[in-house]
Write a structure and sequence with these properties.
Elements: E1 2-9, H1 13-20, H2 23-29, E2 33-40, E3 43-52, E4 55-69, E5 73-81, E6 87-100, E7 106-119, H3 127-149, H4 170-174, H5 181-184
Antiparallel strand pairs: 1-7, 2-3, 3-4, 4-5, 5-6, 6-7
Helix pairs in contact: 2-3
Length: 185
Amino acid sequence: MDMTDSRRIAAPREVVWAALNDPEVLKQCIPGCETIEKTSDTEMTAKVTLKIGPVKATFNGKVTLSDLDPPNGYTISGEGAGGAAGHAKGGAKVSLEAVEGEDGSEETILHYDVKAQVGGKIAQLGGRLIDATAKKLAGEFFTTFGEVVAPAPAEGAGDEAGAEAPKKGWLSGMFGKKKGEAAAE
């Protein structure tokens, strides 16, 4: 499976780089991630539970970062074993491009080129289902990553509203609170 895409993130390149190397941020963003632990500057271990079609499995894996070029990008490679469900291995070349946002602020375009292989029961599901699931998971990761790294400002938080405006970010999104509910309680 190969997948190439780019995502615009409303944050400076240095902030995006730091978030891509922060296990706590990654744990929030990786769908199904139960644990992630940094074992060295270039290695992490993770436990992720995923459902691909009718197969649900918990993968224990190791991730290695190489070709480090802060804050421009790196190569990430990993492999995981999901017991009887199978195994996965692959990597991605990630590059960060600093760009100017519409309002003149610094933003980042995150480019990625993924190559992955799966084996076992998962591989028997067929390429179309695996590719569709991989694209869905990547979409969920980058949507959440963008929200965590660059939370949207609260609506109406202009000069008049100031500090009294409720904040909107990843935490309220996770718990389904609507804007303004927290202030009303």
